[in-house]
Known about the structure:
Elements: H1 3-12, E1 17-23, H2 29-42, E2 46-50, H3 61-72, H4 77-88, E3 94-97, H5 100-106, H6 108-118, E4 122-124, H7 134-142, E5 146-148, E6 150-151, H8 157-166, E7 171-174, H9 190-200, E8 206-209, H10 215-222, E9 227-230, H11 232-239, H12 244-263
Helix pairs in contact: 2-4, 2-12, 4-6, 6-7, 10-12, 11-12
Amino acid sequence: MSLSGAFEKARAEGRPLIVGCMPAGFPTVDDSIASMVAMVESGIDVIEVELPYSDPVMDGPVIQKASDIALANGVRTRDTFRIIEAVAKAGAPVVLMTYWNPVERYGVDAFARDLSAAGATGMITPDLIPDEADAWLAASDAHRLDRTFLVSPSSTDSRIAMTLKHCRGWVYATALMGVTGAREAVSSDAPALVDRIRAADADIPVGVGLGVRDGVQAAEVGAYADAVIVGSALIRRVLEAPDREAGLASLRELGADLAKGARSVRR
Length: 267
């Protein structure tokens, strides 16, 4: 299913999507594939594969630790494309989240070509702004990929409007200032930010991330967002598990809870 198809299906059901994030190659390539497939099987709608990077600017300690483990175990960009291909066959749309340096080093057009060939629907670029994205705008057009830029509570209205014009597929609303990580409570800034986005563009789907840790919070965010993005809470299930099978079982448990929370929303 395409990402746009997933959003349409969720809207028809009156609920948000759940987007689950997992670093590629954590703790190994095969383990990360198993984790993401388990997430799909538990009811998570979209998989966000994160390309591990040595110098993240947005990731909190949980994602940083997982990415460090993946890098130490030798994951490479080519492995990430193989992971995306395997996970896409599980039946959920797959998006890539990556910092810009690895893309630039690989070659922007070549990266977009190989990302599309692997079956990804598009890419989230947390440290790339539209003003500096000419190469990516061209490559994503050439290879028919969605492009997702970020907006935050500190973004001005004019900045939000400009960013939305360059997004395709959906926009990522960071509900908290600072780095990622599951929180005791979701941000009170998030509903106002979503309202500002919809005032600028009523049609583009809005994903809200940074902080959701369970189904109750997923329902809370899903009451106003089109997609609820969950990363650290899922990754922690693998980090804290005594072995692979326990980690997969714990992932499925949380995935099912998140999906139940999303499906409890009535619009």
